[in-house]
Amino acid sequence: MVKGVQQPIRGLFLRFYLLKTMKDLLPDKGSEYEDDENDVTDSIDFILKNFKEMNRLWIRLQYMSSQKDDYKKEEEREELKTTVGENIYRLSSLNGLTVDLYKTKVLPHILDTLIVCEDVMSHQFLIECLINSFPDEFHLETLQPLLEGISKLHKDVDIKTTIITLLDRLTEVVTDKESNIFKMVQKYIDEIFIRFNCKMESKLVIQVSLLSFCIAKDQAKVTENINSVLESC
């Protein structure tokens, strides 16, 4: 029945209702529905599929032929964005979700869904949902593919907000033992500056955040890292 509803708003609300209804019925670690044949991977597959379809329906709202002007359509989509983001929140709240499952199943699927759709609002909202919903440790373990995915977002995305949010979260978990992360982050930020044709104001704000990141977590190479940031300004 869910597949048969192609009218975007109806489809979104039906799938959102399905997601809410199934919240306590999906197999998860420690739940009564987990057994030898059903486990958290089944729940992940279900939610990821629902996420992909809801994102597609959400984007279709923009292209529906109606008397609404573009502003009204954007406003309507803005009001409905949390229904799509709920899928990401549900994934992050699964007790059985491990770093390995996140790395191999969840993150690749979410990034693929985003990159393929090439929709600014979808990219902006859902990448921030992803960064804010999953644990900092997950981002640390998947930093390279995450940064790679961010670098492929639509060029009209407010990349400044996305990068600063990620850096602020990483600052809480990165230790001196992981100091090599700084160079990788800076490499991708330099590439992002070029791809997104960032204005000087955005560059400076991001660089300030990057400076705070390296000062807080890499005392051994703090001078070297600061010089590296300043040279790229």
From TrEMBL:
One GO location term (cellular component): late endosome
Species in which this protein is naturally found: Euplotes harpa
Protein name per Swiss-Prot or TrEMBL: Vacuolar protein sorting-associated protein 35
InterPro entries per UniProt: Vps35
Biological processes, Gene Ontology terms: intracellular protein transport; retrograde transport, endosome to Golgi
PANTHER family: VACUOLAR PROTEIN SORTING-ASSOCIATED PROTEIN 35, VACUOLAR SORTING PROTEIN 35
